[in-house]
Amino acid sequence: MSIAPDWFLEKLEKVTEVIDSTKLKCWQTCDRLFFYEHILGWVPDFPSIDLKFGEAMHDAWAVLEQHGNKPENLTMAYVTFMDTFRRYFGQDTDENYPAKNPGKAAQALEGYIEEWQEQDKHFKPIYIEVAGTAPISQTRAIHFKCDAILQDLRTGKYRIREKKTASQDSRAYHQQWDMSVQIGTYTHVGYCLFPASEFEGVEMDTTFFYKSSKAKYDRRKAFRSPEKMEEWLWHVNTLIDEIEMSANDLIIALDEDPDILHAPVFKHFPYKTESCTKYYGCRYLPFCTTWTNPLRWIYDVPLEFKQQWWDPRDLKVQSRVQLGGKV
Predict the structure, then answer these.
(1) What does the DSSP assignment read for 226-268?
(2) Which of 84, 134, 318, 324 has the most CB atoms less than 10 A away?
(3) Rounded to an integer, what distance in angstroms lies between the CA atom of residue 208 and that of residue 164?
(4) Are 283 and 304 contacting, i.e. CB atoms less than 8 angstroms apart?
């Protein structure tokens, strides 16, 4: 009989029941990060400007994809942005975010239409904001959400357009997509939907936001051949194997060692220290630098955190599909 709480055991037992690129990216970054975020479900109890501004921009872009990337749809897109953004940030906070606020959004949407209006006349939306599952083995499926799946009316071919907000237009930014699990997932979806000869790959559509200048726009392909996707498929299943193995090892330890909750050292889900201070720094760094065994605190959610588990099935989408077939 395990001494751990039932909810904790359930999260370990079902750790890969719903898997997507977000969880896999987290695992690749750090095992302990995955443990805090996807096993314990500890997430900040305040909205992230980067995430919520990006969410609001995606909602606005979806309007333009669906109704046409034209000046007459700018107002509708901006109103949609505001509906989402104001759920998280009041007007009194706008000056705190000089690069990401409603004024910057309005300016960026107007510039986006000007930049891409002519090109987008040639594309027909097949799916906008679509989510679902695609098989990655005989027993596994990966969850996904695509911003837009489009057909080029000039060639008849299809592409998946993924929109991003960013703050630095650099070689490193663009190169990351060549090996990204997320972009591999979208490519896998494309090959499940269309013959290889009709699928052009994923188009990264990035808008760069700056504090003191106008937004900048960039679109470029992140293509992967069917052969490279075989490699991606193996890699993704290997990552899932690792997650399952770590969870199972902890389940066994909890069952066999009554002192594990109070042991001096937690010997499961080890941390990877090269990621602790990247970008804005890991939100869990204070825990890792202070605690040697986080199991001692699983009954208490830390101050300024809440317990909420990521589930891609909860994302707001316009349609859902369940794909068959394989790469």
Answers:
(1) HHHHHHHHHHHHHHHHHHHHHHHHHHHHHHH-TTGGG-SS--S
(2) 134
(3) 8
(4) no
